[in-house]
Amino acid sequence: xxxxxLTSTPVETLKGVGPALGEKLVRLGITHLADVLFHLPLRYExxxxxxxxxxxxxxxxxxxxxxxxxxxxxxxxxxxxxxNLQDDTGRIALxxxxxxxxxxxxxxxxxxxxCFGEVRRGSAGLEIYHPExxxxxxxxxxxxxxxxxxxxEGISQSRYRALVSQVLAKLAQTPLEDFGVGNxxxxxxEAIATLHQPPATVDVLALxxxxxxxxxxxxxxxxxxxxxxxxxxxxxxxxxxxxxxxxPGNQCxxxxxxxxxxxxxxxxxxxxxxxxxxxxxxxxxxxxxxxxGSGKTVVAAIAAVQAQESxxxxxxxxxxxxxxxxxxxxxxxxxxxxxxxxxxxxxxVKGKKRDLELAMIKGGTTQVVVGTHALFQKDVxxxxxxxxxxxxxxxxxxxxxxxxREKGNEGNQIPHQLVMTATPIPRTLTMSMYADxxxxxxxxxxxxxxxxxxxxxxxxxxxxxIERVRTMCQQGNQAYWVCTLIEESDVLESQAAEATLKELxxxxxxxxxxxxxxxxxxxxxxxxxxxxKGGRLNLLVATTVIEVGVDVPNATLMVIENSExxxxxxxxxxxxxxxxxxxTSYCLLLYHxxxxxxxxxxLSVMRETNDGFVIAEEDLRIRGPGELLxxxxxxxxxxxxxxxxxxxDLLPRLKVEADALFQTDPDAxxxxxxxWSNLPDTMAQV
Length: 686
Ligand code: ADP
Ligand code: MG
Fold this sequence. Notes:
By secondary structure, the chain is an alpha/beta fold. It has four domains: about 5-45 and about 145-210, no CATH class; about 55-135, CATH 2.40.50.140; about 240-440, Rossmann fold (3-Layer(aba) Sandwich); about 455-610, Rossmann fold. It has 24 helices and 21 strands. Helix 8 (about 215-240) packs across helix 22 and helix 10 runs parallel beside helix 11 (about 295-310). It binds adenosine-5'-diphosphate and magnesium ion.
């Protein structure tokens, strides 16, 4: 077997893999031997030692051994079998909700048990639900940590482990090519073997936190593969042509003159970058970053006018209906005086109205279309799409961007793309994880903005906060009250908002209080937003649907409930709804004590700074769950070992190393991409 044979040998050659198992493996993206190895463990179980009961912490998965001191059926809210186990250090309960008579007798007759499971706090103190158990103790323990693999499509963990063992044996004879990347750690072959079968001596803590050198070696290569595939996408895009637009003309001048303000130096600089891109015949792929309220939308509108002057249509895509609507209102307000027809298309535009819109887009009467992902749908055809503007990039995956690009694909020509994001991304991440795009940054706010003053307050001061709302509103200002829940559930969040609405209406009878949430119809939402914009509502109770894009300069107070549960990026977005006018604005972050360590740090970052880039960098450091590029990036890349945030320190070096390999050894780059290419189709093209 030559070195590359693991990548070219089908899994069916393994012992015990027939057509049925082969089928299941294919569903995991596993067709060749090497794929088995790159399907890496999600986590590990430590069955190499027995943990004294006194040392157990809730949440640990442990092996415990002890004497059975009781075995009884407990009648709580649910009937269960409860076994009490004791060692020399303490006592723990095993609880079975499903059990047979035979199992009960068997456990009752046992004098000692060894069991394994995750420990939780239950009504009987420390408990393990449905542990694995055996009636003997003192047998030899496992020699290595037990890997637990991600979803295995009906293949049992032990069966998968057996496959891995077979392939590891072959790996020892025919190692994978190691291109010496990230070369101060173990080589690729050693790293793979360690992660599948960690020796008992392994640094368990490092392994569990993803900091083990073997994990870092693989994370390095995985991130490199991702970076390199983006570079390939970029190179492919460069093979295409794009509309050559004319320089900005009279219409652009008129729009600027009508704005009522002059652009900041940063906006001018970014516009110059865009103009350079769209006039040279090559496709633009530009990421436009700017803090909330920095004036990205105006820049996008000017670009759309330039496209129109050159005879091309523009599509603007937003992640939510509310934001699409906001853009539609802004764009049509700016473009209508120029005689430019703007329309909007979301999933909610149906029937005759939709047919009409589609006809106008296809016929070219509509020059600018604003919408949600509905713009991707098959029946949407453009006459001459020249520019695609995508807002809030995190919520769309690479695939979706590519899909919209296809809409303007005629012959060898594709539209220009401008991707706007209000969640600033640390520089190292942009360079390596958005390697298919050029980056522009608006790093300056329009003049006259005063930073939002932020305070952090426990729930016990709610009455005071309500009083603040009353005072602010009586002075003629407006306020938001944002209800948030940790579950990503529209229903629950909306219910919470309705309850808060009742509470605040009762507490503030002199104020007009409105409500907006994700379960309302589009028409209802629009009506409420218009009431609020028009100043007929003093206070708007909202869910996180107002997170992006809503622009009411007179709103100067924002209260955010359960702020301890939100990530920094989201808090920053929400806060960006105030501080949009010239008056001083305030943000009050309510929390439920006690604050965890991470929440405490997040909230103090919010109190200390308004700078989105500083916040993004802090976010990287603090790293709460699902923040930054985490859950908001759903639909985008899932890594196997790498964690974009935890491993971000690897990025600068891997970029340099990959760039060099592109020159010296493009085949190495391709091999690396291929062995990690579980997902994007775009990678498969390489
Ligand atoms: P972003 O999209 O970056 O969040 P917007 O484009 O929505 O920001 O701009 C926020 C607000 O600031 C809008 O009301 C916009 O009209 C206004 N604005 C934009 N640029 C300027 C500027 N240079 N001077 C004054 N106001 C501006
Ligand atoms: Mg905006």
